[in-house]
């Protein structure tokens, strides 16, 4: 028993001394296009504010994959079109890696014409109220006179972009009627915190997604506690099972 205890103690000590390794993975997450209909603070005071989607498209929600090391690998967003309006194009994809209501990265898919690799850029833009002039709004994309969600961010201005840090493969976008999916595959890593947020919508802001997501990757501290707990259970079981001398 003493020898077993000593061995287990050494194993546990090594677990504490050796820096935690990346968890197994990858891990998946899912999200829905829940309320609000617009990003907080960006309602325009019209009947649009009560609508999830104004005509087409309707964003539904999606799924994503994170590596064991905590890096975003891919993101799928589901949507449907009830009518074909060929001039609707995608907006930028917004990422808030620590869910502090300040965007940290964008994928430059604003007005993307098709599939291909699009730039990943660091940004530093509060969701609302601090540097709103850095956003590209729905009004700037040729929708004047149409029924669309006015005055809502759909991308960022060029001067909001930091130095490009990588590329993201984008599936492209269709305006055909029916159910579809856009896919973002991250060719360069973006490290996510324990909670993160993402935002996306078309360049008319007819439907805007804003999702806060709990990172499914276990934190190293949690793993360590789990290991210590298992160690305790092993000792307890060993004691219970040992014949009394
Ligand atoms: Ca929707
Ligand atoms: Ca942030
Ligand atoms: Ca929505």
Question: Short description, anyone?
Answer:
The protein is an alpha+beta fold.
How many DSSP-defined strands? 12
Oligomer: single chain
How many discrete structural domains? 1
Number of helices: 2
- Residue share in β-strands: 25-35%
How does this model look, in words?
This protein has 245 residues and is of the alpha+beta class. It has one domain (25-218). The chain has helices at residues 2-17, 220-241; strands at residues 27-32, 58-66, 72-81, 93-96, 102-107, 116-126, 135-137, 153-156, 166-170, 178-186, 195-200, 209-214. Strand 2 and strand 3 form a beta hairpin. One calcium ion is lined by residues 33, 52-53, 58-59, 207. Residues 96-98, 100, 102, 104 line the site of one calcium ion (CA).
Task: Throw out a few tags for this protein.
245 residues; alpha+beta; ten-stranded antiparallel β-sheet; two-stranded antiparallel ribbon; 12 strands; 32% strand; binds calcium ion
Set out the fold topology:
Elements: H1 2-17, E1 27-32, E2 58-66, E3 72-81, E4 93-96, E5 102-107, E6 116-126, E7 135-137, E8 153-156, E9 166-170, E10 178-186, E11 195-200, E12 209-214, H2 220-241
Antiparallel strand pairs: 1-2, 2-3, 3-10, 4-5, 4-11, 5-6, 6-9, 7-8, 9-10, 11-12
Helix pairs in contact: 1-2
One calcium ion binds next to strand 2.
């Amino acid at each position: 028993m003493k020898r077993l205890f000593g061995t287990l103690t050494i194993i546990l000590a090594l677990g504490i001394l050796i820096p935690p390794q990346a968890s197994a993975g990858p891990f998946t997450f899912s999200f829905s296009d829940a309320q609000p209909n617009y990003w907080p603070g960006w309602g325009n005071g019209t009947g649009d504010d009560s609508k999830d989607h104004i005509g087409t498209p309707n964003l539904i929600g999606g799924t994503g994959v994170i590596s064991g090391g905590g890096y975003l690998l891919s993101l799928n967003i589901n949507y449907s079109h009830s009518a074909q309006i060929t001039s609707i194009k995608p907006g930028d994809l917004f990422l808030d890696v620590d869910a502090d209501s300040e965007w940290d990265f964008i994928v430059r898919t604003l007005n993307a014409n098709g599939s291909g690799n699009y730039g990943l850029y660091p940004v530093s833009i509060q969701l609302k109220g601090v540097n709103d002039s850095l956003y590209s709004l729905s009004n700037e994309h040729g929708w004047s006179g149409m029924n669309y969600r006015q005055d809502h961010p759909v991308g960022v201005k060029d001067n909001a972009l930091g130095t490009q840090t990588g590329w993201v493969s984008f599936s492209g976008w269709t305006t055909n009627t029916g159910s579809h999916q856009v896919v973002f595959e991250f060719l360069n890593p973006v490290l996510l915190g324990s909670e993160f947020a993402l935002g996306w919508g078309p360049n008319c802001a007819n439907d805007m997604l804003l999702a806060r997501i709990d990172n499914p990757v276990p934190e190293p501290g949690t793993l360590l506690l789990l290991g210590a707990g298992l160690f305790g259970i092993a000792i307890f079981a060993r004691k219970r099972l040992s014949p009394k001398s």
